[in-house]
Amino acid sequence: MTSNIRFGRAGAHGVMIGLSLLAIFPVYWMVQTSFRPENEMFSTGLWPAAPTLDNYRAVVTAMPIFAIIWNTVLMAGATTLAQVATGLLAAWALVRWRFPGGRLAHSLIALSWLVPFQVVMIPNYVLATKLGLLDSITGLVVPNAAAAIAVLVLYNAMRGFPREVIEAARMDGASGFRTLMEIVVPNLRAPIASISILCFISAWNDYFWPLLLIRRIENSVVQIGLQFFMTQEGNDWGLLMAAATLASLPIFLIYLALQRQVVQSFMKSGIR
Amino acid sequence: MTDATVSASSSATSIMPRLRLRAAEPWLYLAPAMAVVLIWTYVPLLQAFELSFYEWNMLPRSQPRFVGLENYANLLTLPDMRQAVINTILYTAGLLPLSVGVPLAVALLTARLGGPLRNFYRALIFVPMIVAPVVAAIIWRWLLNEDHGLVNAWLRGFGFDTVGFLRDPDVALWTLVWITGWKLVGFSTLLFAAADSAISPSYIEAARMDGATPWQIVRDIRLPLLSPTILLLTMMTILFGAQWSFVYINALTGGGPLRSTTNVYFLMWEYGFKTMAAGWSTAAGVLVFAVFGLIALLCLALMKRFAVYDE
Fold this sequence. Notes:
Number of strands of chain B: 2
Structural class of chain A: mainly alpha
Shape of chain B: globular
Oligomer: heterodimer
Mean pLDDT of chain B: 87
Order of helices and strands of chain A: HHHHHHHHHHHHH
Shape of chain A: globular
Number of helices of chain B: 13
CATH architecture of the largest domain in chain A: Orthogonal Bundle
Distance between the termini of chain B: 45 Å
Distance between the termini of chain A: 42 Å
Protein backbone atom coordinates (compact mmCIF):
# COMPACT_ATOMS: atom_id res chain seq x y z
CA MET A 1 0.00 0.00 0.00
CA THR A 2 2.72 2.48 0.95
CA SER A 3 4.79 1.70 -2.13
CA ASN A 4 1.63 2.13 -4.14
CA ILE A 5 1.12 5.61 -2.73
CA ARG A 6 4.74 6.57 -3.31
CA PHE A 7 4.52 5.43 -6.90
CA GLY A 8 1.26 7.37 -7.21
CA ARG A 9 2.95 10.49 -5.95
CA ALA A 10 5.84 10.19 -8.42
CA GLY A 11 3.34 9.50 -11.17
CA ALA A 12 1.32 12.53 -10.16
CA HIS A 13 4.42 14.71 -10.35
CA GLY A 14 5.16 13.22 -13.75
CA VAL A 15 1.67 14.02 -15.03
CA MET A 16 1.83 17.58 -13.72
CA ILE A 17 5.32 18.18 -15.12
CA GLY A 18 4.13 16.94 -18.50
CA LEU A 19 1.09 19.19 -18.48
CA SER A 20 3.13 22.17 -17.27
CA LEU A 21 5.65 21.71 -20.07
CA LEU A 22 2.87 21.43 -22.61
CA ALA A 23 1.41 24.69 -21.34
CA ILE A 24 4.57 26.71 -21.01
CA PHE A 25 6.90 25.40 -23.69
CA PRO A 26 5.12 26.98 -26.68
CA VAL A 27 5.22 30.35 -24.90
CA TYR A 28 8.88 29.82 -24.10
CA TRP A 29 9.54 28.95 -27.72
CA MET A 30 7.95 32.23 -28.81
CA VAL A 31 10.15 34.23 -26.44
CA GLN A 32 13.40 32.50 -27.33
CA THR A 33 12.69 32.74 -31.07
CA SER A 34 12.23 36.47 -30.67
CA PHE A 35 15.90 36.70 -29.57
CA ARG A 36 17.27 34.61 -32.41
CA PRO A 37 19.46 36.21 -35.06
CA GLU A 38 18.52 35.57 -38.69
CA ASN A 39 21.11 32.83 -39.23
CA GLU A 40 19.97 30.83 -36.19
CA MET A 41 16.26 30.98 -36.92
CA PHE A 42 15.89 27.35 -37.93
CA SER A 43 18.12 25.77 -35.32
CA THR A 44 16.32 23.58 -32.81
CA GLY A 45 18.54 24.50 -29.87
CA LEU A 46 16.76 25.57 -26.71
CA TRP A 47 18.38 28.99 -26.55
CA PRO A 48 20.05 31.10 -29.29
CA ALA A 49 23.84 30.93 -29.26
CA ALA A 50 24.08 34.66 -29.95
CA PRO A 51 20.87 36.27 -28.65
CA THR A 52 20.05 39.64 -30.18
CA LEU A 53 17.49 42.41 -29.95
CA ASP A 54 17.47 42.91 -33.74
CA ASN A 55 13.96 41.49 -34.11
CA TYR A 56 12.62 43.96 -31.57
CA ARG A 57 14.34 46.85 -33.33
CA ALA A 58 12.83 45.69 -36.60
CA VAL A 59 9.32 45.41 -35.12
CA VAL A 60 9.45 48.92 -33.71
CA THR A 61 10.22 50.30 -37.16
CA ALA A 62 7.91 47.96 -39.08
CA MET A 63 4.74 48.62 -37.09
CA PRO A 64 3.51 51.23 -34.59
CA ILE A 65 3.61 48.62 -31.85
CA PHE A 66 3.68 51.01 -28.89
CA ALA A 67 0.74 53.04 -30.23
CA ILE A 68 -1.13 49.77 -30.70
CA ILE A 69 -0.36 48.59 -27.17
CA TRP A 70 -1.44 51.98 -25.83
CA ASN A 71 -4.71 51.73 -27.81
CA THR A 72 -5.29 48.34 -26.28
CA VAL A 73 -4.58 49.60 -22.76
CA LEU A 74 -7.10 52.40 -23.32
CA MET A 75 -9.68 50.07 -24.82
CA ALA A 76 -9.33 47.37 -22.16
CA GLY A 77 -9.19 49.92 -19.34
CA ALA A 78 -12.27 51.80 -20.52
CA THR A 79 -14.16 48.57 -21.16
CA THR A 80 -13.33 47.30 -17.68
CA LEU A 81 -14.41 50.54 -16.00
CA ALA A 82 -17.65 50.59 -17.97
CA GLN A 83 -18.43 46.93 -17.31
CA VAL A 84 -17.77 47.22 -13.59
CA ALA A 85 -19.79 50.45 -13.33
CA THR A 86 -22.81 49.17 -15.25
CA GLY A 87 -22.47 45.85 -13.44
CA LEU A 88 -22.47 47.49 -10.00
CA LEU A 89 -25.50 49.64 -10.81
CA ALA A 90 -27.51 46.80 -12.33
CA ALA A 91 -26.61 44.36 -9.57
CA TRP A 92 -27.58 46.97 -6.97
CA ALA A 93 -30.98 47.47 -8.60
CA LEU A 94 -31.61 43.73 -8.51
CA VAL A 95 -30.43 43.24 -4.93
CA ARG A 96 -31.83 46.35 -3.28
CA TRP A 97 -35.33 46.35 -4.78
CA ARG A 98 -37.94 43.78 -5.61
CA PHE A 99 -39.98 45.18 -8.46
CA PRO A 100 -42.11 44.06 -11.37
CA GLY A 101 -39.90 43.27 -14.36
CA GLY A 102 -36.84 42.81 -12.20
CA ARG A 103 -36.59 39.09 -12.80
CA LEU A 104 -37.15 39.55 -16.52
CA ALA A 105 -34.36 42.13 -16.64
CA HIS A 106 -32.12 39.78 -14.71
CA SER A 107 -32.79 36.93 -17.15
CA LEU A 108 -32.32 39.13 -20.20
CA ILE A 109 -28.92 40.24 -18.95
CA ALA A 110 -27.92 36.73 -17.87
CA LEU A 111 -28.95 35.12 -21.15
CA SER A 112 -27.28 37.70 -23.36
CA TRP A 113 -24.04 35.71 -23.34
CA LEU A 114 -25.82 32.83 -25.05
CA VAL A 115 -26.27 34.90 -28.22
CA PRO A 116 -23.25 34.18 -30.43
CA PHE A 117 -21.62 37.32 -31.71
CA GLN A 118 -21.63 35.99 -35.27
CA VAL A 119 -25.42 35.94 -35.22
CA VAL A 120 -25.77 39.64 -34.44
CA MET A 121 -22.63 40.89 -36.18
CA ILE A 122 -24.33 42.31 -39.28
CA PRO A 123 -26.93 44.46 -37.46
CA ASN A 124 -24.19 45.52 -35.02
CA TYR A 125 -21.89 46.45 -37.85
CA VAL A 126 -24.63 48.45 -39.59
CA LEU A 127 -25.44 50.28 -36.36
CA ALA A 128 -21.77 51.02 -35.64
CA THR A 129 -21.41 52.41 -39.17
CA LYS A 130 -24.44 54.65 -38.70
CA LEU A 131 -23.09 55.94 -35.40
CA GLY A 132 -19.69 56.65 -36.95
CA LEU A 133 -17.94 54.19 -34.65
CA LEU A 134 -15.86 52.45 -37.32
CA ASP A 135 -12.11 52.47 -36.86
CA SER A 136 -12.25 54.02 -33.38
CA ILE A 137 -11.45 52.96 -29.83
CA THR A 138 -14.84 54.33 -28.70
CA GLY A 139 -16.49 51.95 -31.11
CA LEU A 140 -14.67 49.05 -29.50
CA VAL A 141 -15.80 50.03 -26.01
CA VAL A 142 -19.44 51.10 -26.46
CA PRO A 143 -21.06 47.76 -27.40
CA ASN A 144 -19.07 46.09 -24.60
CA ALA A 145 -19.95 48.65 -21.95
CA ALA A 146 -21.97 46.03 -20.08
CA ALA A 147 -21.13 42.38 -19.56
CA ALA A 148 -23.48 39.68 -18.33
CA ILE A 149 -20.70 38.09 -16.32
CA ALA A 150 -19.92 41.33 -14.46
CA VAL A 151 -23.57 41.81 -13.51
CA LEU A 152 -23.91 38.19 -12.38
CA VAL A 153 -20.73 38.07 -10.33
CA LEU A 154 -21.45 41.40 -8.62
CA TYR A 155 -25.05 40.37 -8.06
CA ASN A 156 -23.93 37.23 -6.25
CA ALA A 157 -21.40 39.18 -4.23
CA MET A 158 -23.98 41.77 -3.20
CA ARG A 159 -26.54 39.16 -2.30
CA GLY A 160 -24.07 37.82 0.22
CA PHE A 161 -23.84 41.29 1.75
CA PRO A 162 -25.73 41.42 5.10
CA ARG A 163 -29.24 42.63 4.45
CA GLU A 164 -29.49 44.29 7.89
CA VAL A 165 -26.70 46.72 7.05
CA ILE A 166 -28.52 47.86 3.91
CA GLU A 167 -31.77 48.20 5.84
CA ALA A 168 -30.04 50.13 8.60
CA ALA A 169 -28.62 52.57 6.05
CA ARG A 170 -32.09 53.10 4.67
CA MET A 171 -33.47 53.72 8.15
CA ASP A 172 -30.75 56.29 8.69
CA GLY A 173 -32.02 58.08 5.61
CA ALA A 174 -29.18 57.26 3.22
CA SER A 175 -30.23 57.28 -0.42
CA GLY A 176 -29.89 54.18 -2.53
CA PHE A 177 -26.92 55.57 -4.38
CA ARG A 178 -25.10 56.64 -1.22
CA THR A 179 -25.65 53.23 0.35
CA LEU A 180 -24.19 51.62 -2.75
CA MET A 181 -21.14 53.86 -2.98
CA GLU A 182 -20.33 54.32 0.72
CA ILE A 183 -21.35 51.04 2.27
CA VAL A 184 -21.62 48.28 -0.31
CA VAL A 185 -18.79 49.06 -2.73
CA PRO A 186 -16.04 49.50 -0.09
CA ASN A 187 -16.97 46.10 1.31
CA LEU A 188 -16.93 44.40 -2.07
CA ARG A 189 -13.35 45.27 -2.95
CA ALA A 190 -12.30 41.66 -3.46
CA PRO A 191 -15.07 40.66 -5.91
CA ILE A 192 -14.74 43.99 -7.74
CA ALA A 193 -11.01 43.48 -8.13
CA SER A 194 -11.60 39.92 -9.27
CA ILE A 195 -14.15 40.81 -11.93
CA SER A 196 -12.02 43.76 -13.07
CA ILE A 197 -9.11 41.42 -13.77
CA LEU A 198 -11.36 39.12 -15.77
CA CYS A 199 -12.93 41.99 -17.72
CA PHE A 200 -9.53 43.52 -18.50
CA ILE A 201 -7.96 40.30 -19.77
CA SER A 202 -11.08 39.40 -21.77
CA ALA A 203 -11.17 42.84 -23.36
CA TRP A 204 -7.44 42.70 -24.08
CA ASN A 205 -7.84 39.34 -25.83
CA ASP A 206 -11.07 40.20 -27.65
CA TYR A 207 -10.78 39.51 -31.32
CA PHE A 208 -14.00 39.47 -33.27
CA TRP A 209 -15.40 42.95 -32.78
CA PRO A 210 -12.07 44.73 -33.44
CA LEU A 211 -11.71 42.53 -36.50
CA LEU A 212 -14.94 43.98 -37.89
CA LEU A 213 -14.40 47.54 -36.80
CA ILE A 214 -10.75 48.41 -37.29
CA ARG A 215 -9.42 49.44 -40.70
CA ARG A 216 -6.00 50.95 -40.21
CA ILE A 217 -3.10 49.50 -38.30
CA GLU A 218 -2.41 52.69 -36.33
CA ASN A 219 -5.96 52.55 -34.93
CA SER A 220 -5.82 48.88 -34.14
CA VAL A 221 -5.53 46.93 -30.92
CA VAL A 222 -2.89 44.24 -30.44
CA GLN A 223 -5.00 41.32 -31.63
CA ILE A 224 -5.71 42.95 -34.96
CA GLY A 225 -2.29 44.56 -35.23
CA LEU A 226 -0.73 41.13 -34.89
CA GLN A 227 -3.12 39.72 -37.46
CA PHE A 228 -2.19 42.48 -39.95
CA PHE A 229 1.43 41.84 -39.20
CA MET A 230 1.07 38.10 -39.67
CA THR A 231 -0.50 38.56 -43.11
CA GLN A 232 2.12 41.13 -44.05
CA GLU A 233 5.32 39.59 -42.76
CA GLY A 234 4.26 36.00 -43.40
CA ASN A 235 7.26 33.94 -42.47
CA ASP A 236 9.64 36.37 -40.83
CA TRP A 237 9.47 34.34 -37.64
CA GLY A 238 11.86 36.37 -35.53
CA LEU A 239 9.90 39.52 -36.25
CA LEU A 240 6.54 37.86 -35.63
CA MET A 241 7.64 36.33 -32.35
CA ALA A 242 9.06 39.65 -31.15
CA ALA A 243 5.78 41.39 -31.99
CA ALA A 244 3.75 38.65 -30.30
CA THR A 245 5.98 38.77 -27.22
CA LEU A 246 5.64 42.55 -26.92
CA ALA A 247 1.89 42.31 -27.37
CA SER A 248 1.64 39.70 -24.61
CA LEU A 249 3.94 41.48 -22.19
CA PRO A 250 1.33 43.57 -20.33
CA ILE A 251 -0.89 40.56 -19.62
CA PHE A 252 2.10 38.43 -18.58
CA LEU A 253 3.24 41.18 -16.21
CA ILE A 254 -0.23 41.34 -14.67
CA TYR A 255 -0.12 37.56 -14.27
CA LEU A 256 3.32 37.65 -12.66
CA ALA A 257 2.20 40.27 -10.16
CA LEU A 258 -1.28 38.94 -9.40
CA GLN A 259 -1.05 35.27 -10.30
CA ARG A 260 -3.30 33.98 -7.52
CA GLN A 261 -5.98 36.63 -8.08
CA VAL A 262 -5.97 36.12 -11.85
CA VAL A 263 -6.48 32.37 -11.54
CA GLN A 264 -9.15 32.87 -8.88
CA SER A 265 -11.07 35.39 -10.95
CA PHE A 266 -11.14 33.07 -13.96
CA MET A 267 -12.19 30.12 -11.88
CA LYS A 268 -15.01 32.02 -10.18
CA SER A 269 -16.39 33.53 -13.32
CA GLY A 270 -16.29 30.63 -15.72
CA ILE A 271 -14.83 30.27 -19.13
CA ARG A 272 -15.98 33.10 -21.26
CA MET B 1 -34.38 63.03 -1.19
CA THR B 2 -34.36 60.40 1.51
CA ASP B 3 -37.29 58.37 2.70
CA ALA B 4 -37.35 59.97 6.12
CA THR B 5 -37.27 63.59 5.02
CA VAL B 6 -39.71 62.94 2.23
CA SER B 7 -42.32 61.37 4.48
CA ALA B 8 -42.06 64.37 6.77
CA SER B 9 -42.24 67.03 4.06
CA SER B 10 -44.36 65.54 1.30
CA SER B 11 -47.85 66.84 0.88
CA ALA B 12 -50.79 64.81 -0.34
CA THR B 13 -50.51 66.21 -3.87
CA SER B 14 -46.91 65.08 -4.35
CA ILE B 15 -47.46 61.50 -3.27
CA MET B 16 -48.46 60.16 -6.67
CA PRO B 17 -45.43 61.37 -8.67
CA ARG B 18 -43.30 60.42 -5.71
CA LEU B 19 -44.56 56.86 -5.87
CA ARG B 20 -43.96 56.75 -9.57
CA LEU B 21 -40.42 57.99 -9.07
CA ARG B 22 -39.81 55.28 -6.49
CA ALA B 23 -41.05 52.60 -8.85
CA ALA B 24 -38.68 53.98 -11.47
CA GLU B 25 -35.66 54.07 -9.19
CA PRO B 26 -34.40 50.50 -9.76
CA TRP B 27 -34.81 51.03 -13.48
CA LEU B 28 -32.48 54.02 -13.31
CA TYR B 29 -29.77 51.73 -11.98
CA LEU B 30 -30.60 49.02 -14.50
CA ALA B 31 -30.76 51.42 -17.43
CA PRO B 32 -27.10 51.47 -18.53
CA ALA B 33 -26.67 47.68 -18.56
CA MET B 34 -30.10 47.09 -20.05
CA ALA B 35 -29.51 49.69 -22.75
CA VAL B 36 -26.27 48.02 -23.84
CA VAL B 37 -27.79 44.55 -23.81
CA LEU B 38 -30.91 45.64 -25.70
CA ILE B 39 -29.18 47.85 -28.27
CA TRP B 40 -26.26 45.55 -29.01
CA THR B 41 -27.73 42.07 -28.44
CA TYR B 42 -31.51 41.71 -28.44
CA VAL B 43 -32.55 44.31 -31.00
CA PRO B 44 -29.82 43.07 -33.38
CA LEU B 45 -31.06 39.53 -32.78
CA LEU B 46 -34.53 40.55 -33.98
CA GLN B 47 -33.01 42.51 -36.86
CA ALA B 48 -30.96 39.47 -37.85
CA PHE B 49 -34.14 37.43 -37.83
CA GLU B 50 -35.81 40.00 -40.07
CA LEU B 51 -32.82 40.26 -42.39
CA SER B 52 -32.82 36.51 -42.88
CA PHE B 53 -35.90 36.92 -45.10
CA TYR B 54 -34.21 39.52 -47.31
CA GLU B 55 -31.53 39.63 -49.91
CA TRP B 56 -29.10 42.45 -49.22
CA ASN B 57 -25.47 43.12 -50.13
CA MET B 58 -24.93 45.47 -47.16
CA LEU B 59 -24.10 48.49 -49.30
CA PRO B 60 -25.62 51.58 -47.72
CA ARG B 61 -27.46 52.67 -50.86
CA SER B 62 -28.89 49.35 -51.90
CA GLN B 63 -32.35 48.33 -50.72
CA PRO B 64 -32.89 44.94 -49.08
CA ARG B 65 -35.24 42.83 -51.22
CA PHE B 66 -37.78 40.52 -49.57
CA VAL B 67 -37.25 36.91 -50.61
CA GLY B 68 -39.28 35.01 -48.01
CA LEU B 69 -37.78 31.67 -47.06
CA GLU B 70 -35.47 31.51 -50.04
CA ASN B 71 -32.30 32.06 -47.98
CA TYR B 72 -33.21 29.17 -45.70
CA ALA B 73 -34.10 26.91 -48.62
CA ASN B 74 -30.78 27.70 -50.29
CA LEU B 75 -28.77 27.15 -47.14
CA LEU B 76 -30.33 23.80 -46.39
CA THR B 77 -29.57 22.44 -49.85
CA LEU B 78 -26.06 23.88 -50.11
CA PRO B 79 -23.15 21.45 -49.72
CA ASP B 80 -21.23 24.28 -47.99
CA MET B 81 -23.65 24.26 -45.11
CA ARG B 82 -23.64 20.49 -44.74
CA GLN B 83 -19.85 20.44 -44.65
CA ALA B 84 -19.81 23.27 -42.09
CA VAL B 85 -22.29 21.47 -39.85
CA ILE B 86 -20.26 18.27 -39.98
CA ASN B 87 -17.10 20.23 -39.20
CA THR B 88 -18.81 21.98 -36.28
CA ILE B 89 -19.65 18.59 -34.81
CA LEU B 90 -16.05 17.44 -35.35
CA TYR B 91 -14.69 20.55 -33.59
CA THR B 92 -16.96 19.97 -30.62
CA ALA B 93 -16.30 16.25 -30.42
CA GLY B 94 -12.57 16.83 -30.77
CA LEU B 95 -12.53 19.44 -28.04
CA LEU B 96 -14.36 17.38 -25.43
CA PRO B 97 -11.39 15.14 -24.56
CA LEU B 98 -9.19 18.23 -24.15
CA SER B 99 -11.66 20.31 -22.17
CA VAL B 100 -13.21 17.53 -20.08
CA GLY B 101 -11.59 14.09 -20.47
CA VAL B 102 -7.91 14.80 -19.98
CA PRO B 103 -8.42 17.47 -17.28
CA LEU B 104 -10.70 15.17 -15.32
CA ALA B 105 -8.19 12.32 -15.50
CA VAL B 106 -5.31 14.61 -14.51
CA ALA B 107 -7.26 16.08 -11.60
CA LEU B 108 -8.17 12.62 -10.29
CA LEU B 109 -4.61 11.31 -10.69
CA THR B 110 -2.97 14.27 -9.01
CA ALA B 111 -5.53 14.97 -6.30
CA ARG B 112 -3.23 13.97 -3.45
CA LEU B 113 -0.35 16.08 -4.62
CA GLY B 114 0.47 18.73 -2.06
CA GLY B 115 3.26 21.09 -1.16
CA PRO B 116 4.79 24.12 -2.81
CA LEU B 117 5.30 22.34 -6.13
CA ARG B 118 1.57 21.97 -6.57
CA ASN B 119 1.07 25.73 -6.69
CA PHE B 120 3.96 26.04 -9.09
CA TYR B 121 2.39 23.52 -11.49
CA ARG B 122 -0.94 25.30 -11.20
CA ALA B 123 0.59 28.65 -12.02
CA LEU B 124 2.17 27.16 -15.15
CA ILE B 125 -0.73 25.16 -16.53
CA PHE B 126 -3.02 28.19 -16.34
CA VAL B 127 -0.81 30.30 -18.61
CA PRO B 128 -2.34 29.32 -22.00
CA MET B 129 -5.70 30.63 -20.78
CA ILE B 130 -4.40 34.20 -20.70
CA VAL B 131 -2.40 33.96 -23.92
CA ALA B 132 -4.29 36.00 -26.51
CA PRO B 133 -5.88 33.82 -29.21
CA VAL B 134 -3.97 35.55 -32.00
CA VAL B 135 -0.71 35.05 -30.12
CA ALA B 136 -1.59 31.37 -29.68
CA ALA B 137 -2.27 31.19 -33.42
CA ILE B 138 1.12 32.74 -34.22
CA ILE B 139 2.99 30.50 -31.79
CA TRP B 140 1.48 27.30 -33.13
CA ARG B 141 1.84 28.42 -36.71
CA TRP B 142 5.57 28.64 -36.02
CA LEU B 143 5.85 25.41 -34.01
CA LEU B 144 3.86 23.45 -36.61
CA ASN B 145 5.39 25.06 -39.70
CA GLU B 146 5.92 22.47 -42.37
CA ASP B 147 9.49 23.32 -43.37
CA HIS B 148 11.15 24.80 -40.32
CA GLY B 149 8.81 24.23 -37.38
CA LEU B 150 10.09 22.50 -34.27
CA VAL B 151 7.47 19.74 -34.26
CA ASN B 152 8.28 18.69 -37.80
CA ALA B 153 12.00 18.90 -37.02
CA TRP B 154 11.38 16.45 -34.17
CA LEU B 155 9.30 14.21 -36.41
CA ARG B 156 12.10 14.18 -38.95
CA GLY B 157 14.57 13.46 -36.18
CA PHE B 158 12.60 10.37 -35.19
CA GLY B 159 12.45 9.26 -38.82
CA PHE B 160 8.81 10.14 -39.54
CA ASP B 161 7.47 12.05 -42.51
CA THR B 162 6.72 15.70 -41.96
CA VAL B 163 3.08 16.65 -41.52
CA GLY B 164 1.37 19.62 -43.18
CA PHE B 165 -0.49 20.48 -40.01
CA LEU B 166 -2.31 23.42 -41.56
CA ARG B 167 -2.08 22.39 -45.20
CA ASP B 168 -3.33 18.82 -45.18
CA PRO B 169 -7.15 18.76 -45.42
CA ASP B 170 -7.27 15.61 -43.29
CA VAL B 171 -5.21 17.15 -40.50
CA ALA B 172 -5.94 20.90 -40.46
CA LEU B 173 -9.19 20.71 -38.50
CA TRP B 174 -7.57 18.62 -35.78
CA THR B 175 -4.68 21.07 -35.60
CA LEU B 176 -7.15 23.86 -34.90
CA VAL B 177 -8.93 21.68 -32.35
CA TRP B 178 -5.59 21.09 -30.66
CA ILE B 179 -4.78 24.82 -30.45
CA THR B 180 -8.24 25.60 -29.07
CA GLY B 181 -7.86 22.79 -26.54
CA TRP B 182 -4.32 23.78 -25.59
CA LYS B 183 -5.70 27.02 -24.19
CA LEU B 184 -8.33 25.20 -22.15
CA VAL B 185 -6.78 22.04 -20.82
CA GLY B 186 -4.92 23.57 -17.87
CA PHE B 187 -7.79 25.77 -16.82
CA SER B 188 -10.24 22.86 -16.89
CA THR B 189 -7.80 20.85 -14.81
CA LEU B 190 -7.77 23.60 -12.20
CA LEU B 191 -11.58 23.65 -12.14
CA PHE B 192 -11.73 19.90 -11.62
CA ALA B 193 -9.00 20.02 -8.98
CA ALA B 194 -10.89 22.70 -7.07
CA ALA B 195 -14.13 20.71 -7.23
CA ASP B 196 -12.29 17.53 -6.20
CA SER B 197 -10.62 19.12 -3.21
CA ALA B 198 -14.03 20.36 -2.05
CA ILE B 199 -15.16 16.76 -1.58
CA SER B 200 -15.30 16.01 2.12
CA PRO B 201 -12.41 13.67 3.04
CA SER B 202 -14.69 11.89 5.51
CA TYR B 203 -16.61 10.24 2.64
CA ILE B 204 -13.43 8.85 1.17
CA GLU B 205 -12.15 7.81 4.59
CA ALA B 206 -15.43 6.04 5.37
CA ALA B 207 -15.38 4.22 2.04
CA ARG B 208 -11.78 3.16 2.61
CA MET B 209 -12.68 1.81 6.04
CA ASP B 210 -15.36 -0.26 4.36
CA GLY B 211 -12.68 -1.72 2.12
CA ALA B 212 -13.44 0.15 -1.09
CA THR B 213 -10.71 0.05 -3.73
CA PRO B 214 -9.37 3.36 -5.11
CA TRP B 215 -11.24 2.74 -8.35
CA GLN B 216 -14.51 2.13 -6.46
CA ILE B 217 -13.97 5.38 -4.59
CA VAL B 218 -13.47 7.22 -7.89
CA ARG B 219 -16.51 5.62 -9.48
CA ASP B 220 -18.96 5.81 -6.60
CA ILE B 221 -17.91 8.94 -4.71
CA ARG B 222 -15.61 11.27 -6.58
CA LEU B 223 -17.10 11.08 -10.08
CA PRO B 224 -20.70 11.59 -8.89
CA LEU B 225 -19.62 14.55 -6.77
CA LEU B 226 -17.66 15.96 -9.71
CA SER B 227 -20.65 15.60 -12.01
CA PRO B 228 -21.74 19.27 -11.77
CA THR B 229 -18.31 20.37 -13.02
CA ILE B 230 -18.23 17.64 -15.68
CA LEU B 231 -21.65 18.66 -16.97
CA LEU B 232 -20.82 22.37 -16.84
CA LEU B 233 -17.61 22.00 -18.83
CA THR B 234 -19.28 19.64 -21.30
CA MET B 235 -22.07 22.13 -21.80
CA MET B 236 -19.67 25.04 -22.25
CA THR B 237 -17.66 23.05 -24.80
CA ILE B 238 -20.75 22.07 -26.78
CA LEU B 239 -22.18 25.58 -26.73
CA PHE B 240 -18.99 27.56 -27.32
CA GLY B 241 -16.33 25.18 -28.64
CA ALA B 242 -17.01 26.01 -32.27
CA GLN B 243 -16.95 29.73 -31.44
CA TRP B 244 -13.61 29.43 -29.62
CA SER B 245 -12.12 27.92 -32.77
CA PHE B 246 -13.15 30.88 -34.91
CA VAL B 247 -10.00 32.91 -34.28
CA TYR B 248 -7.77 30.07 -35.38
CA ILE B 249 -9.80 29.38 -38.50
CA ASN B 250 -9.68 33.01 -39.51
CA ALA B 251 -6.04 33.58 -38.59
CA LEU B 252 -4.55 30.29 -39.74
CA THR B 253 -6.52 28.50 -42.45
CA GLY B 254 -9.20 30.87 -43.73
CA GLY B 255 -11.56 27.89 -43.68
CA GLY B 256 -9.39 25.80 -45.99
CA PRO B 257 -7.73 23.75 -47.25
CA LEU B 258 -10.66 22.64 -49.43
CA ARG B 259 -13.07 24.11 -46.84
CA SER B 260 -12.02 21.36 -44.45
CA THR B 261 -11.83 23.70 -41.45
CA THR B 262 -14.94 25.82 -42.12
CA ASN B 263 -17.49 25.58 -39.31
CA VAL B 264 -20.88 27.27 -39.13
CA TYR B 265 -19.53 30.40 -37.44
CA PHE B 266 -16.87 30.85 -40.05
CA LEU B 267 -19.45 30.25 -42.78
CA MET B 268 -21.60 33.07 -41.38
CA TRP B 269 -18.59 35.33 -41.35
CA GLU B 270 -17.74 34.43 -44.94
CA TYR B 271 -21.29 35.01 -46.15
CA GLY B 272 -21.53 38.25 -44.24
CA PHE B 273 -18.22 39.96 -44.82
CA LYS B 274 -16.58 38.14 -47.72
CA THR B 275 -19.45 37.53 -50.13
CA MET B 276 -21.57 40.35 -48.65
CA ALA B 277 -24.69 38.21 -48.54
CA ALA B 278 -26.37 39.55 -45.40
CA GLY B 279 -29.47 37.42 -45.89
CA TRP B 280 -27.57 34.16 -46.09
CA SER B 281 -25.39 35.03 -43.15
CA THR B 282 -28.29 35.99 -40.90
CA ALA B 283 -30.37 32.99 -42.01
CA ALA B 284 -27.48 30.72 -41.07
CA GLY B 285 -27.22 32.67 -37.82
CA VAL B 286 -30.87 32.16 -36.99
CA LEU B 287 -30.59 28.42 -37.66
CA VAL B 288 -27.45 28.13 -35.56
CA PHE B 289 -28.93 30.16 -32.73
CA ALA B 290 -32.09 28.06 -32.75
CA VAL B 291 -30.16 24.79 -32.67
CA PHE B 292 -27.71 25.91 -29.97
CA GLY B 293 -30.55 27.47 -27.97
CA LEU B 294 -32.31 24.08 -27.92
CA ILE B 295 -29.08 22.37 -26.96
CA ALA B 296 -28.60 24.88 -24.13
CA LEU B 297 -32.08 24.20 -22.75
CA LEU B 298 -31.49 20.48 -23.03
CA CYS B 299 -28.16 20.78 -21.21
CA LEU B 300 -29.68 22.81 -18.41
CA ALA B 301 -32.44 20.24 -17.99
CA LEU B 302 -29.85 17.44 -17.96
CA MET B 303 -27.78 19.28 -15.37
CA LYS B 304 -30.77 19.68 -13.09
CA ARG B 305 -31.59 16.02 -13.45
CA PHE B 306 -28.22 14.29 -13.29
CA ALA B 307 -25.86 16.46 -11.32
CA VAL B 308 -25.20 15.16 -7.83
CA TYR B 309 -24.77 17.79 -5.15
CA ASP B 310 -23.29 17.22 -1.74
CA GLU B 311 -25.82 18.70 0.62
